[in-house]
Amino acid sequence: MNLQATIDFDLRRFFRWWSKELSYWIPAPVLALLSDRSGYLIFAETPAGMTATFRRALDPDQPPVFSKTLNRDNPDAYRELLALQPELQKADTLLRLEASQGLTKTIYLPLAAQENLAQVVGFELDRYTPFKADAVYFANLPLGKTDSGQLRVQLVLTPRPVLDRLLEQLQSWGVQPSGVDYAEALPAEGITADYNLLPERFQPRGNRLSQSLHWLLNGLFALLLLAATIWPVWREGEAVERLKASIKTLEKETRLIEGQQQEIEAVRSKTQRLIDLKTQTPSLIEVLNELSKLLKDDTWLTHFQYTDKHLQVQGQSPAASALIGILEASPYFANVAFVSPLTQDKNTGRERFQISMDVAAVAETEPSEAADTAEETDTDANPADDNGSGTANE
């Protein structure tokens, strides 16, 4: 890849191409309003006379509107044609040379010749053709660079007498062509070539003000068309930016809500842990109530310590050794054991004890089980009443 290579850019050819491509997107009625031309009238010499072909557009795929052969000896031939076709007055007039009236050839030149291509071709013309530069009208069409670094050029020429005669014929009818091309040197993509064999002295002098106004109007229309194309896209872009801003705001609110939900979830988890802890551990009142039920009236406590599901009690009892079995039988207590040996109190005669045990939660009785228990109690009570009543009756 050669980074030092120069980039050739022909601004005039670019705008010609750009205008042509843009015209494909414009409807034909609108394009006709913008253009000051009704079409293209192409003159070509044939054995029968001078043929005039009218086309709406420079497109070889579209058939011509009409084609008529004019008599060379009739000085009013063109005026009669205008009388039949008034729209030809606004047509762009071209002269097309037939195959026998010109010559085309592809030549190769050094790249340095590109800056003064016309002068170089004119100087070297007799090397590539049997004509000298002052005997022909010629044009050159650059075709690009070759792989070997040479400039490829298409040379088109016609003898001066041939073109002068044809131009004089047209001038006798009052026709002033705006361009001359060669039928054997037309580009593949269109009818008109990117060159002009018309001598400078025959080129029409247009109204600069009219042409400037025409191009100004076309430029304004192109700007309006461009604005009409870009404006909706710009509006959509603004709408997208607004949506992005809204999404950012919603994302901030969403993150705030998620943070609050996490805090709520943390509080709920702590609360649930406290509830589970309370459910798994009996309350102090329940433990005291259970001890009051299990211990007889001749047994009392002098010390009570309840910490983290573990209970340690001290006291006196006539039969302290029996307390281990009594406490183990309770669903509230497990791992019941003496912490120290039993001793005798001389004043009371009772045994001093120190017992430790684990405290466990007791599942609450289901309503159905309580109901069944109540029914069993009632059943046990009824037979006694029945028996008593029977005895009384007897």
UniProtKB/TrEMBL annotation:
Coiled coil start-end: 240-270
InterPro entries assigned: ATPase_NBD, Extracell_DNA_Util/SecSys_Comp, PilN
Cited Pfam families: PilN (PF05137)
Keyword GTP-binding applies: no
Membrane spanning stretches: 215-234
Positions with biased composition (Acidic residues): 366-379
Keyword Transmembrane helix: yes
Domain of life of the source: Bacteria
Chain segments carrying region Disordered: 361-394
Keyword list, A-Z: Coiled coil, Membrane, Transmembrane, Transmembrane helix
Name of the molecule in the record: Fimbrial assembly protein
